[in-house]
Amino acid sequence: MLLAAIGIYGVMSYAVSARTQEMGVRLALGAQRGDVLWLVLSQVLRLSAVGLTLGIAILLVAGRLLERLLFEVRASDPLIIGFVTLVLAAVAIVAAWAPASRASRVDPIQALRYE
User: Fold this and answer.
1) Rounded to an integer, what distance in angstroms lies between the CA atom of residue 52 and that of residue 62?
2) Pairwise CA distance, residues 114 & 43, whole Å
3) What does the pLDDT read at residue 115?
4) CA 93, 95, 96 angle in degrees (round to 5)?
């Protein structure tokens, strides 16, 4: 989980720093800070949804192969899959909150001067 959080934080920090001018232009044209925050967080939510969907699909396929190695545990337990999915989604949101918050506080003048 920690490794996933660090990875998401790193990728989102890079994405926000690469789009600093865009965020500045949006704010200069009248976008609210909440709009910019939602823009970054929605990107994380979309990527997380794709990753979690692929992960669940792979789990259901590979789980059948690994189920015979497990003792009294089913690899396709919907309760466990749902819980882990929610926890991973929460980790993604928490890890992306700092870059999203930083993006919403960009000074438009500084962002337009940024190279």
Assistant:
1) 15
2) 23
3) 57
4) 65
